[in-house]
């Protein structure tokens, strides 16, 4: 058995730094995520910034309509102002040779929106301006390590690269223009057209149906028009005319936006992609169409990195992907730094630590397994805190080396192969979409009876044989050791209850009430469960539908766990401070049924002592969808509920009786 006293490395950092910018390589620093960030000293409009505090850096590259949209969209700037913690600093930069003019424009944008929000809400946001710094030198020419990093850390996929349209015309030759693709998820992504060439056809304002056949063509559509119809209507009408995709050109007075559906429109998936260009570029294309054929090729130029960060420990970090142009994503990364700052504070507290895995390769359903010697039960019972310190990393040092899909990670324990607890689940996590920063501290003291022998087998595995590898690190932390045993109550016995299954019309019929017995020495009785919903039927169950799970004790005391967060647009994004890894590659933002991508699944524990009596008791379970029995279309594959549930019995530690008296 190896038990160590755990302390994180000391840090002189008081806060965090996030950096959003892009740059050309000048100096060589060979930095990787997790390395200590060197100092920097940058001249700004109001002086200098050189504090290694919680700071966000962003550099405008006006070749990218996406990066520029973060500033031109009021909603994005408002989110930055309203959702930023008071201990976060921001540094803004520009790649332009006229960087000082660009950052002056950014400063004026912030001042304008701060004034607007203060007048609208009655809340003063002036303090935000004191935490915003505007660098007057061009990004890439600051003479600091930032130049090297932004030129060498690649940026691909969502929010990265320079999206363009390459135009070939009969009369005007070839030229390029910026484009801003539509919001993801309601229509296919325009990236599917990359390096493909299609012929353009004028489709007016797209607000009315037409008999015009646009087979294998792109529809050029005006953003405005007398009908002022939605983007959904414009693209739907083009789709009905057999168009392969849509290019919307803006009005003279409005900047580019990431087109999105509205309300009930979002329930209907369209089948062709769309992108937006400026009014001037749109008029150029309309003129070219009067002179002959216009062919359009979608291209993506490589770009330097636009965003990165320095965390509370002074380490340089990636900031993930922006799924659409909004400063919200950058505030979520700042929240992650706040979360890890608090996590590290908790990890710095005294604890006896049993190492289990250390960046061990875990792949598929085989996973990783090890046998560890643990302290004897009489010693373990003296700790009032038992926690799983779990970190989940990837084969490489960058997020791009991480697996692309979310999977269930389960930790199973078996200390006594002939005992009742062998093979029980001790912890559960959900992998993120391509991020390597996950780290959680999960309380599991109620499951102490699982440690019923000196040598324990731990198996951590994924839920699919084809799942790509992850590198988990796991320590079991025993802390807050009590000296006076007379006041300690300890979990000494567990009775497993219900397991999950297919969430169909037969789901509840498989569960009969289960009896359990409360002994004379039992001073507390608790109900514990870990429940998550997965899969997708015609109701989006059980991943994105609201389910409730009901435990009825002795026929009249009902305890309910309801996952009302499921299916909400930002249900998981709003939980970064609870440990959800931000800015993942997929649809991590949406609320799920009892879980989020890139987060632990916390056990649900309720005290039922007042509802039980000595001797025989019983508990009944049933699960509902929107308050009713699940009843998916029998023609579709139903979702499923993954559940472990237990009754846990506590007694005083100084009770000399080792036998349960019923």
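^ Assign residues to that structure.
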């Amino acid at each position: 058995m190896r038990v160590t006293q755990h302390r994180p490395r000391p840090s002189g950092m008081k806060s965090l730094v996030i950096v959003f910018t892009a740059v050309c390589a000048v100096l060589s620093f060979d930095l990787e995520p997790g390395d200590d960030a060197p100092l920097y000293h940058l001249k700004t409009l109001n002086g200098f910034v050189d504090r290694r505090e919680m700071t966000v850096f962003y550099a405008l590259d006006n070749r990218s309509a996406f990066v520029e949209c973060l500033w031109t969209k009021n909603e994005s700037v408002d989110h930055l102002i309203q959702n930023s913690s008071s201990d976060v600093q921001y540094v803004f930069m520009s790649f332009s040779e006229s960087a000082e003019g660009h950052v002056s424009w950014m400063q004026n944008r912030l001042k304008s929106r701060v004034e607007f929000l203060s007048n609208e809400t009655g809340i003063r946001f002036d303090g935000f301006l004191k935490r915003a710094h505007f660098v007057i030198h061009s990004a890439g020419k600051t003479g600091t390590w930032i130049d090297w990093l932004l030129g060498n850390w690649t940026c691909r996929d969502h929010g990265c690269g320079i999206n363009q349209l390459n135009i070939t015309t009969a009369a005007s030759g070839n030229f390029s223009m910026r484009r801003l693709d539509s919001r993801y998820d309601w229509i296919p992504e325009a990236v599917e057209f990359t390096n493909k060439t299609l012929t353009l056809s004028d489709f007016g304002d797209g607000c009315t149906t037409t008999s015009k056949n646009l087979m294998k063509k792109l529809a050029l559509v005006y953003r405005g028009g007398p009908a002022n119809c939605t983007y959904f209507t414009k693209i739907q009408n083009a789709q009905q005319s057999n168009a392969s995709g849509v290019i919307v050109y803006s009005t003279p007075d409005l900047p580019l936006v990431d087109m999105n559906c509205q309300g009930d429109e979002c329930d209907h998936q369209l089948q062709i992609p769309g992108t937006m260009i400026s009014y001037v570029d749109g008029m150029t294309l309309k003129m070219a169409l009067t002179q002959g054929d216009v062919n359009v090729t979608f291209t993506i130029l490589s770009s330097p990195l636009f965003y990165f960060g320095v965390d509370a420990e002074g380490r340089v970090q990636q900031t993930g992907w922006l799924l659409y142009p909004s400063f919200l994503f950058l505030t979520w990364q700042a929240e992650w730094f706040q979360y890890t700052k608090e996590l590290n504070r908790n990890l710095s507290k005294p604890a006896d630590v049993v190492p289990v895995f250390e960046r061990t390769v875990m792949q598929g359903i085989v996973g990783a397994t090890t046998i560890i010697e643990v302290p004897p039960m009489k010693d373990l019972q003296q700790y009032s805190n038992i926690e799983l310190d779990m970190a989940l990393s990837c084969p490489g040092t960058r997020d791009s080396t991480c697996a692309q899909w979310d999977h269930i990670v389960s930790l199973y324990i078996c200390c006594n192969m002939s005992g009742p607890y062998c093979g029980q689940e001790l912890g559960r996590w959900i992998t993120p979409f391509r991020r390597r920063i996950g780290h959680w501290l999960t309380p599991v003291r109620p499951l102490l009876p699982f440690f019923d022998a000196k040598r324990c087998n731990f198996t951590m595995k994924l839920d699919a044989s084809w799942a790509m590898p992850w590198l988990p690190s796991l320590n079991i932390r025993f802390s807050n050791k009590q000296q006076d045993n007379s006041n300690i109550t300890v979990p000494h016995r567990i009775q497993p209850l219900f397991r999950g299954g297919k969430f169909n019309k037969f789901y509840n019929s498989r569960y009969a009430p289960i009896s359990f017995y409360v002994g004379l020495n039992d001073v507390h009785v608790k109900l514990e469960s870990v429940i998550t919903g997965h899969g997708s039927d015609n109701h989006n169950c059980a991943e994105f539908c609201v389910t409730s799970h009901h435990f009825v004790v002795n026929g009249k005391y009902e305890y309910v766990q309801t996952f009302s967060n499921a299916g909400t647009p930002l249900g998981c994004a709003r939980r970064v401070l609870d440990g959800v890894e931000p800015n993942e590659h997929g649809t991590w933002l949406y609320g799920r049924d009892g879980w989020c991508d890139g987060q632990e699944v916390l056990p649900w524990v309720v005290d039922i002592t007042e509802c039980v009596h000595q001797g025989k008791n019983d508990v009944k379970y049933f699960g509902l969808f929107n308050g009713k029995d699940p009843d998916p279309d029998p023609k579709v594959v139903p979702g499923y509920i993954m559940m472990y549930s237990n009754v846990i019995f506590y007694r005083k530690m100084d009770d000399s009786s080792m036998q349960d008296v019923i």
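The chain has a mean pLDDT of 91.
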